[in-house]
Amino acid sequence: MGSGGDHRRGDLTATPVVEAARPELEKAARKAESRRGVLIALPAWAYLVVFFAMPLGIVFVYSFATRSSTGRTRLADWNLDAYRRLFDPLVFEIFRRSLLLALATTVICLLVSYPFAYYIATRGPRLRNVLLVMVMLPFWSNFLVRTYAWKVLLGSEGPISQLSQALGGEPIRLLFTNTAVLIGLVYGFLPFMVLPLYAALERMDWSLVEAARDLYATGWTAFRKVTWPLSRPGVIAGSILVFIPALGAYVTPAILGGARTTLMGDYIVSQFLAARNQPFGSALSFGIMVVMLAGTIVYFRTGARNV
Amino acid sequence: MNLAGVRPKSPTERLLAANAWVVYAFFYAPILVLIVFSFNANNNVGIWTEPSLRWYRDVLSNDAVLSAIKVSLIVAFVSTVVSTILGTMTALSLERFRYRGQRAFDGLVYLPIIIPDVTMAVMLLLFFAQGFQWLDAAIGWRPSFGIGTISLSHIAFNISFVAVVVRARLGQMDPGLEEAAADLYATRWQTFRRVTLPLIAPGVAGGALLALTLSLDDVVITSFVAGPGATTLPVYVFGLVRRGVTPLINAVSTLMLVASMLLVAISLGFQRSSRSRVTALGDDRE
Hints:
Chain A is mainly alpha-helical. Chain A has helices at residues 2-6, 16-62, 81-85, 89-121, 125-140, 143-154, 159-166, 178-202, 207-214, 219-230, 232-247, 251-256, 264-273, 278-306; strands spanning 66-67, 73-74. Chain A folds into two domains: 2-62, no CATH class; 81-306, MetI-like fold (Orthogonal Bundle). In chain A, 38% of the residues are buried. Chain B has one domain: MetI-like (MetI-like fold).
């Protein structure tokens, strides 16, 4: 500060008093500014602490509580029983089934969406916008209604089965199977994959592909070495956006799945409604959340390294 | 950009186009079937007899449906207004200020988006049940589950979504404009009111629309925190759907589809008009 003041000695504003006070003033201004930021955040912060952080804390606490013989939760005799039950073969089987279904949903969505998003991204600007709105339109309509539509379609008396019978075939019974749940999940979450993929492909520098082609790369090689790596962020974002809700899905399996296709979401809900085992249900929901967060972080880390 | 125009149509190009049409058919066929069968006179969903508005008359004279619609609209309105205000403040605070504990707050804001619906539903159920029990013990007042708990829960997940949308808009904005206003002796509030707010308005509108949609869409969380007296339309329909397929559900579903399409149309119109307003401003200057 001292040497900085030397050449400004002739300047009227740079009197020694002001010079000395400046760091203090700046500090005070910065303080006031950050206080203002805290003040603006305060209402939302308070709301999220009360209606999000505290509920999360309560679930955590409940997961260590005991269940009395009548199904009530006693906040005493803290124990790890609920967590021990997570390693029960039955729970493991349900988790494995949910995980496989979520993975299958993600992979199918990716395989279908990539060429689809590629097609949209390579159209002219006007057509591109129309095509995008056509993707968004069903996406904005109610998820429950869209899932219900498949119940109508897949039922034993539904149009698909009728059509098959009219053509002299067997009645098709897909409803209440894992296949039906898979179809419903893909249908429900496909736009989550299409949109990030489209965003990544659309802002890609296509002259790089041209350059690869000019250097005698085949179409496939150019795709593998240029387009695919450049669209990786979209692939990662889309996969996470599909995988997470698919793993915790409740509505789709409840409508399209059968009694023998219990999934994680269904199982958790049943602990609170039918089985009345709140500590175990709490441990389950906490466990699935940790798995999801961990999965997301690992996926982001490895993805970021490879891009 | 447009490779299609450069080269003649290759087999790959044709395959891509075919795939796109199959995907669009996949998107729209179920919805179309649902709409068509809602106008079917037959009791049996799968067999077409003749067109009729019978099920729509049934829906509009069904008290349970009408009261569920009322609850849905009240909850959607309250949660959208509150979460839009709180979410916009959150976005401003996270994007424009630096303070201690900011990163923790940032994390708290993102968590409700990442967390599975089922977990959130369980959390809020236990929270309200336990909280009401404590309230009863402390001051002898035991609130009941209903519109209040549903609205509070919807706000809890909507704040984050609004904050993310508004924040994206704020990030694109030129901070120089706010500094210019400050240099011209505008107060903080004036700067916000006259410069920042008009510029982020499309983001705020987008966030509000998202909040509205999510509120009208939610089944899982609402079904946990809804009381015996008050349920929203999706939760009511979910109850019916689990029992089976009926033409009445087709009619309700079609009405819900039409409502959400209208919302999208309004929002697209809104975006277009705000864009044309901006270009009109540009024309004035020229």
